[in-house]
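Shipment paperwork, digital attachment
Item: protein structure file
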Amino acid sequence: MKGSKDAQRIARQLLKATVENGEVNGGTVKTVLRKLATDKPRGYLGVISAYAHLVRLELEKSHAVIESASPLGGTLEASVVADLKGKYGEQITSEFKNNPELLGGMRVRVGSDVWDGSVRNRLERLREKIG
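Attachment content:
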């Protein structure tokens, strides 16, 4: 158990060194992983695993996945991206996906934040209230 806690602590310290101006520095990630793989300090596999997990979570914070039942169109997509940049900063990237199962509306996910304004979600909430 202690090794796992140490790996987590070291991974958090490495992540702090990896993030510059709110963004993950890919070069630093490669350098850190290469150094760990070469030097192989005690518990290095746990550190690599924890570090990779933290880097993935950090990258997800700056990437938005926008799902809609049908294509949004250029002006609406630009408006959504502008709103997200206002909330999360200019570094945010976006990915638009069509998901007919939503029936209408859209769902936006940025890291662990989710906004679900889909018709499907509204119907499911209504069903829970009724039944």
